[in-house]
Amino acid sequence: MEINYREMGRRIAKRRKALNLTQEEISEATGLSNNHISNIENSHSIPSIETLMKVCEKLEVTPDYVLLGITKDLNDDLVTQICKKLKLCDNKKLKLIDSFITWIIDENI
Distance of CA 7 to CAs 10, 84, 103, Å? Predict the structure, then answer.
């Protein structure tokens, strides 16, 4: 799984704007420089895990959302539905499903 840092920066900027926050407000809350926040949003810098966690906390989002665009609220229902269906499958079908999922991930579909 690859992280698209350009998209990550766009998600951070989009969320920041949705909360009507400035880069300066994020930098003050996280103890990071305004320039560093700008560089992350513009994919000129890759944040450390500690920095990412500080930004996520201020933006009230999970790292899953920032890194991969995954929102837990929307996916929890889908995951639950898929798990229920998987329980109805025998070993042969589960192996086929596993192969298909692996193919999708490998192909970045």
Answer: 5, 32, 23
pLDDT score for 57: 94
In this structure, how many other beta carbons lie within 10 angstroms of the beta carbon of residue 56?
20
Place of tokens 């999970």: 62
Distance between CA atoms of 103 and 86, rounded to whole angstroms?
A: 18
Band (pLDDT 50/70/90 cuts) for residue 73 is low
pTM of the predicted model as reported, rounded to 2 decimal places: 0.65
For the chain, domain boundaries: 5-68, 72-107
Q: How many whole angstroms separate alpha carbon 8 and alpha carbon 23?
A: 15
Domain 5-68 matching CATH 1.20.58.100: the answer reads: no
Q: In this model, does residue 109 exceed pLDDT 90?
A: no
